[in-house]
Amino acid sequence: GMSSSVHGAQSDSSTALASVMIGIAGMRNRPLKTILTSVTVVLLTFTILVFASFTSKEGVQKNYEGKGTGLDHLEIHRFSFLDIPGPIFESIDTLYNKDWQVFRRGGAFANPVTKGLQNSHVLFSEKNGQSVSIKAMIGLQQAEVSLNQDLAAIVPGFTDLPLEPFPPLLLPEAIVSNMALALGDEVIYAGHRFIFRGTVQTSLLQSYANLDGSKLTPPDFAAILDDGNVQQNDLADESSMESVDISNFIWVSPQDMAITTYDALKKLNRIDNFIALYPRHDDVDIETTSREIAAVFNGPIYAKDALGVNQYYFTTVIQGSGFSEVIVPL
């Protein structure tokens, strides 16, 4: 019985060996087929390993936008340029105030979601009864203007303007001429009194651009719709507006707006749509701060440092495991 078992095992081994030898002989006789089969096996294995190595990952991405000018700083706004909720600003200010000076900009302009597109308001002078319609009023903080010389050039003397008895108002020269205003005249806007304190340098305002190429003046949503590149449904709610391409935006003309202090717009349904951070010292880690804010903010973070301008944003990306993890198993 044992001899039969041994004989059976030897017979199986001989059969397996004979099969291998026949296969090798067949490969020698058909070299082209052998090469093509080998290449196919390698390619299929490689393809499976490559696709298996890709995974989706959520995180902050960084894009280089080019060389920038001016002070190192961060700029934060929503894709739609609509209101940034107060708690977000308060959180940023609380967390980063030690190393950064944190400022807000705001405006009174048409919000197509809550106010529709009727964004004309009237400036009225009681002194001579003259009036002019404007599309927007923007508010700046005097402390930020004192830091940012590009802003200071647009509104000369802004940092020294008195805040009493009524907030200061700066207007384009054309509006001043049409209303026949003199410095110190009272102007009424949306039921609130302002004092005309100077003119806006409209040519500088027109050329001024934020780090992403957007303007200091707010979007003109009525003009955007009229232009035809954005549909009414795109402006139906704030969620839809977040997906509108900023390159399709049309900005309120510098000739159709006014500038005052940020605090003065509080009673005018101010839209707080912009946050700017300026480092307090040279040791601030701009990239780390940008990544931390981008991880929790629904919108782009733009950072200007010594190397240029970078955009940081939170997204989901497809990421490979690495070249070595594909080649080694292969």
Keywords:
330 residues; alpha+beta; eight-stranded mixed beta sheet; five-stranded mixed beta sheet; 11 helices
Secondary structure layout:
Layout: H1 2-29, H2 31-53, E1 54-66, E2 73-76, H3 86-96, E3 100-108, E4 121-124, E5 131-134, E6 136-140, H4 142-147, H5 149-154, E7 168-172, H6 173-179, E8 186-189, E9 192-200, H7 202-207, H8 221-227, H9 238-241, E10 257-261, E11 271-279, H10 286-294, E12 301-305, E13 308-320, H11 323-327
Parallel strand pairs: 6-10, 7-9
Antiparallel strand pairs: 1-13, 2-11, 2-12, 3-6, 3-11, 4-5, 4-8, 8-9, 12-13
Structural class: alpha+beta
Which bin fits the share of residues in helices?
Answer: 25-40%
Distance between the termini: 46 Å
Strand content: 25-35%
- Average per-residue pLDDT, rounded, comes to 84
Total beta strand runs: 13
Strand order of the largest sheet: 1-13-12-2-11-3-6-10
